[in-house]
């Protein structure tokens, strides 16, 4: 977990000035994670092709390669599409800084998804993915860009003299890089530069790339800083020294060397004195750190950090056999889940997050803080988390029978859920959601109720999982205006169109889920000459033929009266009108109380096309893009089950969210 600088002890004024004086020469870490450019392609994957798992796999392997070598390239091949990935840190970065830079780039590059290509340049590293083998490419006029600073430079002189100094530096720098293993840094007359080609580009490709970069970056003059962001290389000049001391190459004579040696000795002595000062205040710092830990850890409370919820990264790494692919249980929107065995023999599920906690602190600690203190038989129990390692981990109780979705999508029907099992899952899920809405000290809206988030234990009892999108709903609020995130096909119309979130959004999702369980198919699994699952069930309800929608795999082995009641509850929960939907507590009573009279659904559970087009223009997510995720039949649009997120154009009422499912 990255701590703020307030973690360090407050030093006396003289020490502060010493630190200020020697800050530049003794900067211990500079991963250079400022974003120089993010470029995303326009192409999207073919229909019915799941691209995100390929992306995730590529990033996982790159993480291992970068950890070992500070760079790497990898290809993931699938039947209909492949993904090729490349990551490289600039050679002056230390290994630790390289890992930080790569982590930052990996966190930001998913903003390009679902595009099948994207590349990001940070000031310390480069990361790219594409659908073809690009490793040998050096130049591409359509993609090669420059990033210029418009402030006029004056290092070593002004005007033409400055431009001459920069061009001289660039010429020498690029020539040196070509013959020096694709990399060089240099400083002269107050101007500094770095040139690097990707390790997959050969010498001639490197020469061609840097030659083009030299021409392109000349357009930044007389600006004091410029970057050429090319397909096969990176070139930068600046009036500020930005690269690490360990790799700087400068023209020097013996006098300069002697002066450098003297300066090095003086600075070494100063560094030793500073270390002594730090040691003298170490005890004070440790005490001060304890008192400030609540603030320093942000969303994590002090009590959590010292509790048994805090797992060591090494323990979980060993428990999963170092995230052995054979132990992978599944993959969600925020990470992969692995089966692990703790030292005490207990089996757990370990969720390995795709994104760095530092950049995604809200999502990570939202899940920890909301559900670590609540327990219910129909909720997956969060056992703890780890924030100490290179990536953040969540630890859950192990649920052996995986997700409900696998039973619904099993074309081979290896295991067919009988009616009693389906009914128990429906009731258990309802009880779990009702508990979230009002059974604990929090009012929690899950926001992503769907079959893949319903896990089944050894008795096939339902357990609700994945609280990364959940929100705490204050008692005095009528609704929340929040970023739209979830899964199309399960999202309530008022939330999708207006961004207004209430408990009734979960009720709508639950209604869709009920129909899926009873009918044995997903909401987006269309049948010829029919519509969505919701439309199909509604038509059968209107013609008093509801039992015809029950999963044919049951071969009629179900109580018709109970099946009709359950289907009516599903339709009630999925009504377009918020007011017409029951609360989850009412839904539980409808399902479990034999004497409870279930009301008749009065509205079809469809999303009105006119309402969508009238309201969705306020979102930066284009209507054309949204329409591509809708299926239209008989003049009505039905959401397909795809994931997406929307950020409002004003950036205020809807926070930016990137949740990929």
TrEMBL record:
<keyword id="KW-0808">Transferase</keyword>
<keyword id="KW-0812">Transmembrane</keyword>
<keyword id="KW-0472">Membrane</keyword>
<keyword id="KW-0597">Phosphoprotein</keyword>
<dbReference type="GO" id="GO:0005524">
    <property type="term" value="F:ATP binding"/>
</dbReference>
<keyword id="KW-0067">ATP-binding</keyword>
<feature type="domain" description="Gnk2-homologous">
    <location>
        <begin position="33"/>
        <end position="134"/>
    </location>
</feature>
<keyword id="KW-1133">Transmembrane helix</keyword>
<keyword id="KW-0418">Kinase</keyword>
<feature type="domain" description="Protein kinase">
    <location>
        <begin position="323"/>
        <end position="607"/>
    </location>
</feature>
<dbReference type="InterPro" id="IPR000719">
    <property type="entry name" value="Prot_kinase_dom"/>
</dbReference>
<feature type="transmembrane region" description="Helical">
    <location>
        <begin position="261"/>
        <end position="284"/>
    </location>
</feature>
<dbReference type="Pfam" id="PF01657">
    <property type="entry name" value="Stress-antifung"/>
</dbReference>
<keyword id="KW-0723">Serine/threonine-protein kinase</keyword>
<feature type="compositionally biased region" description="Polar residues">
    <location>
        <begin position="637"/>
        <end position="652"/>
    </location>
</feature>
<dbReference type="GO" id="GO:0004674">
    <property type="term" value="F:protein serine/threonine kinase activity"/>
</dbReference>
<keyword id="KW-0732">Signal</keyword>
<keyword id="KW-0325">Glycoprotein</keyword>
<dbReference type="GO" id="GO:0016020">
    <property type="term" value="C:membrane"/>
</dbReference>
<keyword id="KW-0675">Receptor</keyword>
<dbReference type="Pfam" id="PF07714">
    <property type="entry name" value="PK_Tyr_Ser-Thr"/>
</dbReference>
<dbReference type="InterPro" id="IPR002902">
    <property type="entry name" value="GNK2"/>
</dbReference>
<dbReference type="InterPro" id="IPR008271">
    <property type="entry name" value="Ser/Thr_kinase_AS"/>
</dbReference>
<keyword id="KW-0547">Nucleotide-binding</keyword>
<dbReference type="InterPro" id="IPR011009">
    <property type="entry name" value="Kinase-like_dom_sf"/>
</dbReference>
<feature type="signal peptide">
    <location>
        <begin position="1"/>
        <end position="29"/>
    </location>
</feature>
<keyword id="KW-0677">Repeat</keyword>
<dbReference type="InterPro" id="IPR038408">
    <property type="entry name" value="GNK2_sf"/>
</dbReference>
<protein>
    <submittedName>
        <fullName>Cysteine-rich receptor-like protein kinase 42</fullName>
    </submittedName>
</protein>
<feature type="domain" description="Gnk2-homologous">
    <location>
        <begin position="143"/>
        <end position="242"/>
    </location>
</feature>
<dbReference type="InterPro" id="IPR052059">
    <property type="entry name" value="CR_Ser/Thr_kinase"/>
</dbReference>
<dbReference type="InterPro" id="IPR001245">
    <property type="entry name" value="Ser-Thr/Tyr_kinase_cat_dom"/>
</dbReference>
<feature type="region of interest" description="Disordered">
    <location>
        <begin position="637"/>
        <end position="661"/>
    </location>
</feature>
């Amino acid at each position: 977990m990255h701590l703020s600088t307030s973690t360090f002890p407050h030093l006396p004024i003289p020490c502060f000035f010493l630190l200020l004086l020697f800050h530049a020469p003794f900067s211990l870490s500079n991963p250079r994670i400022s974003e120089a450019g993010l470029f995303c392609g326009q192409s999207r994957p073919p229909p019915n092709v799941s691209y995100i798992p390929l992306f995730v796999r590529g990033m996982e392997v790159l993480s291992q390669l970068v950890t070992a070598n500070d760079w790497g390239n990898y290809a993931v091949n699938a039947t209909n599409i492949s993904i090729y990935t490349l990551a490289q840190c600039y050679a002056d970065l230390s290994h630790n800084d390289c890992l930080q830079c790569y982590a930052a780039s990996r966190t930001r590059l998913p903003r390009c998804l679902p595009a099948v290509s994207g590349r990001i340049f940070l000031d310390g590293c480069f990361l790219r993915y594409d659908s073809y083998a690009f490793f040998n490419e050096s130049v591409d006029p359509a993609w090669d860009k420059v990033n210029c600073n418009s402030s006029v430079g004056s290092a070593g002189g002004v005007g033409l003299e400055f431009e001459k100094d920069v061009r001289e530096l660039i010429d020498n720098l690029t020539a040196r890089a070509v013959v020096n293993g694709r990399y060089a840094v240099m400083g002269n007359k107050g101007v500094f530069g770095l040139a690097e080609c990707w390790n997959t580009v050969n010498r001639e490709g490197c020469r061609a790339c840097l030659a083009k970069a030299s021409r392109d970056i000349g357009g930044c003059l007389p600006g004091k800083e410029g970057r050429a962001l090319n397909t096969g290389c990176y070139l930068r000049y600046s009036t500020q020294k930005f690269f690490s001391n360990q790799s700087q190459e400068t023209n020097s004579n013996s006098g300069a060397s002697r002066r450098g040696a003297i300066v090095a000795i003086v600075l070494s002595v100063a560094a030793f004195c500073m270390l002594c000062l730090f040691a003298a205040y170490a005890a004070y710092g440790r005490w001060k750190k304890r008192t400030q830990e609540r603030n320093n850890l942000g969303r994590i409370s002090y009590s959590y950090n010292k509790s048994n919820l805090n797992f060591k990264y090494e323990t979980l790494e060993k428990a999963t056999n170092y995230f052995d692919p054979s132990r992978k249980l599944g993959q969600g929107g925020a990470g992969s889940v692995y089966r692990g065995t703790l030292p005490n023999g207990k089996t757990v599920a370990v969720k390995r997050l795709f994104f760095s906690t530092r950049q995604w602190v809200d999502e990570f600690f939202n899940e920890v803080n909301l559900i670590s203190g609540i327990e219910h038989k129909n909720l997956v129990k969060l056992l703890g988390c780890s924030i100490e390692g290179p990536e953040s981990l969540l630890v859950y109780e192990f649920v052996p029978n995986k997700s409900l979705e696998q039973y619904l999508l099993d074309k081979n029907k290896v295991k067919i859920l009988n009616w009693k099992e389906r009914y128990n899952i429906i009731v258990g899920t309802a009880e779990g959601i009702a508990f979230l809405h009002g059974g604990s000290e929090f009012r929690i809206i899950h926001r992503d109720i769907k079959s893949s988030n319903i896990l089944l234990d050894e008795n096939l009892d339902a357990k609700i999982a994945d609280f990364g999108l959940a929100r705490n709903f204050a008692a005095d609020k009528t609704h929340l205006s929040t970023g739209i995130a979830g899964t199309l096909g399960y999202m309530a119309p008022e939330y999708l169109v207006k961004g207004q979130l209430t408990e009734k959004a979960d009720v709508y999702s639950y209604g869709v889920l009920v129909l899926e369980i009873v009918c044995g198919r997903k909401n987006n699994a269309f049948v010829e000459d029919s519509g969505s699952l919701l439309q199909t069930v509604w038509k059968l309800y209107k013609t008093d033929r509801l039992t015809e929608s029950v999963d044919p795999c049951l071969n009629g082995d179900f109580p018709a009266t109970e099946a009709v009641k359950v289907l009516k509850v599903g339709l009630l929960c999925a009504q377009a009108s918020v007011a017409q939907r029951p609360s989850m507590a009412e839904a539980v009573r409808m399902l479990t109380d034999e004497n409870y009279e279930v009301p008749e659904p009065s509205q079809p559970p469809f999303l009105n096309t006119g309402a969508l087009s009238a309201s969705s223009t306020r979102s930066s997510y284009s209507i054309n893009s949204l329409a591509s995720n809708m299926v239209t039949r008989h003049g009505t649009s039905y959401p397909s089950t795809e994931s997406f997120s929307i950020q409002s154009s004003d950036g205020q009422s809807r926070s930016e969210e990137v949740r990929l499912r």
